[in-house]
Amino acid sequence: MGQNSSTATPVTSTIVAEGFDRWSPPLHLDFEKNAHNGQVGQTLVKETEAVRIWETHLQPGERIPVHRHVLDYSWIALTDGLARQHASDGSSREIAYVRGQNQHFTFREECHHLHDLKNIGESVLSFLVVEMKDGANPPLPLADGVADS
């Protein structure tokens, strides 16, 4: 996975655990169950032949399940906030977001990023994610019931 940031404010991320430390059995199960979950946001706003656009609004304490990124994508934070992310490498990190921050990720063939995201702040945490379908990897199929709004 490559990463190119176009944000003026760098993303603040702190590793708070490694080696699957403090991971609960349900969290491990979520990684197994959703290892190929391509739903990278709560709501698929639009899908065309070229892109998928996702919107996510996490209430305090709310979590988006484990999902797999395989497509090149960009995200933009619509609100300030604080989140905890668990990744498939066994790391857990806390990430501070500032409204307007954005980041772009590029994936080589057969590479991916598997993670969850939980709002650990005191206000709604919102993002837009735009996936580009013309990269090195084909799009993952979406579960039944995921449709444009």
Element layout with pairings:
Layout: E1 2-4, E2 12-17, H1 25-33, E3 43-47, E4 51-58, E5 63-69, E6 72-77, E7 81-86, E8 92-97, E9 102-106, E10 113-119, E11 125-132
Provide an overview of this structure.
The chain is built from 1 helix and 11 strands. The termini are far apart. The longest helix has 9 residues, at 25-33. Helices cover 6% and strands 45% of the residues. It has 149 residues and is mostly beta strands. Strand 7 (81-86) and strand 8 form a beta hairpin. It has a 6-stranded antiparallel sheet, with no helix packed on it. A 5-stranded antiparallel sheet has the order 2-8-7-10-5, covered by helices on one side. It has one helix spanning 25-33, and strands spanning 2-4, 12-17, 43-47, 51-58, 63-69, 72-77, 81-86, 92-97, 102-106, 113-119, 125-132.
For the structure shown, list the relevant keywords:
single chain, 149 residues, mainly beta, six-stranded antiparallel sheet, five-stranded antiparallel sheet, 11 strands, 45% strand, disordered N terminus
